[in-house]
From TrEMBL:
Its main location: cytoplasm. GO terms for molecular function: ATP binding; glutamine synthetase activity. It is an enzyme of class 6 (ligase). It holds the Pfam family Gln-synt_N. Residues 88-341 form the GS catalytic domain. Catalyzes the ATP-dependent biosynthesis of glutamine from glutamate and ammonia. The gene is glnII. The lineage of its organism: Bacteria, Pseudomonadati, Planctomycetota, Planctomycetia, Planctomycetales. Residues 5-86 form the GS beta-grasp domain. It is found in: Cytoplasm. One of its GO terms (cellular component) is cytoplasm. Homooctamer and homotetramer. This is Glutamine synthetase. It comes from the Bacteria. The keyword Nucleotide-binding applies.
Length: 341
């Protein structure tokens, strides 16, 4: 007797300046459980701002497969979007990554707000006015400080069941704000897993009637924005063994502020103000353990003899991890080409 399996094909649409996730289910018979068993599929690009109605077919090329614990007999198929001729679609940020040997490792720290769909405010915010000033909410516990923990815990469990390399969660600085972290050895896979984790969070939010707000500054005023700090390393950073190598690589980011900020997320000027643990969007700085810098050199890296990683603190919570990784890789590779002996 043949078995039926649900494959949820998910992809990024063509909306600007911030792309959204889309997904549709395909029922297959006797699924083998490997990425190679996932056929190419297609969708109507005219409904996602990725094609014109007269020539609307876009292709879904499977790139990552994970179990879907939220459904029975189901898998999630992360896809990149191709044109009908098989070339990468302009909206395809994954195609920009040049890291074929997976030398680059990435860890993304995804911050976000949980929003009440009726009040359009973060959980924990009263219908009128504001809660107590930020401070007690970071890594908090208790009903007066932590809001939406059921959602966050369920998301963590389902991510781990799906085989995603989520490394932790915590309450963030503002009320109703949370964070999870993903890590992968390979830039493309890091992006795949982050997008799948975002998809699962969105779906859990549906269940609770709570919206996931990815905007980098949804609450104006004296409240922290949301980032997606990018921790990264390659062989050079992992084995450098000297401060001069780190200085050289960090300095290579300074003349490329625009190239990075352009793909680090929409409205990031509202978040990168020089306040709330950020550097100004038009300035560049780096330093050891400096959370007000553009790039932070972790104390771990220094204490381990300048062998470790760097953290770019500028990417926004609504940024595309594919595009963020791609530009970081480009800058670091160029810097490594001119690394002093």
């Amino acid at each position: 007797m043949s078995s039926k399996t649900k494959l949820e094909y998910i992809w990024l649409d063509g909306y600007q300046p911030t792309q959204s996730l889309r997904g549709k289910t395909k029922i297959v018979t006797d699924f083998g459980g490997t990425l190679e068993d996932c056929d190419m599929w297609s969708f109507d690009g005219s409904s996602t701002q990725q094609a014109e109605g007269g020539s609307s077919d876009c292709l879904l090329h499977p790139v990552c497969l994970r179990p879907d614990p939220g459904r029975v007999n189901a898998w999630i198929v992360m896809c990149e979007v191709l044109n009908a001729d098989g070339t990468p679609h302009p909206s395809n940020g994954r195609a920009l990554i040049h890291d074929d040997d997976n030398d680059f490792w990435f860890g993304f720290e995804q911050e976000y707000f949980l929003f009440d769909v009726d009040t359009n405010k973060p959980l924990g915010f009263p219908e009128k006015g504001y809660p107590a000033p930020q401070g007690p909410y970071y890594c908090s516990v208790g009903a007066t400080n932590a809001y939406g923990r059921d959602i966050v815990e369920e998301h963590l469990d389902i991510c781990l069941e799906a085989g995603l390399n989520v490394e932790g969660i915590n309450g963030e600085v503002a009320a109703g704000q949370w964070e999870f972290q993903c890590f992968s050895k390979g830039a493309a896979e890091a992006g795949d897993e982050m997008w799948i984790a975002r998809y699962l969070l969105e779906r859990i939010g549906e269940k609770y009637g709570v919206a996931i707000n990815w905007h980098c500054k949804p609450i104006k005023g004296d409240w922290n924005g949301s980032g997606m700090h990018a921790n990264f390393s390659n062989t050079v950073l992992r084995e450098a063994g000297k401060k001069e190598a780190y200085d050289h690589i960090c300095k290579a980011f300074e003349p490329r502020i625009k190239e990075h900020v352009d793909v680090y997320g929409a409205d990031n000027d509202q978040r990168l103000t020089g306040l709330h643990e950020t550097q100004s969007i038009d300035k560049f700085s780096y330093g050891v353990s400096d959370r007000g810098a553009s790039i932070r050199i972790p104390v771990f890296t220094v204490k381990h003899g300048w062998k470790g990683w760097l953290e770019d603190r500028r990417p926004a919570s609504n940024g595309d991890p594919y595009k963020i990784a791609a530009v970081i890789i480009e800058t670091v590779k160029k810097a490594c080409e001119s690394l002093p002996a």
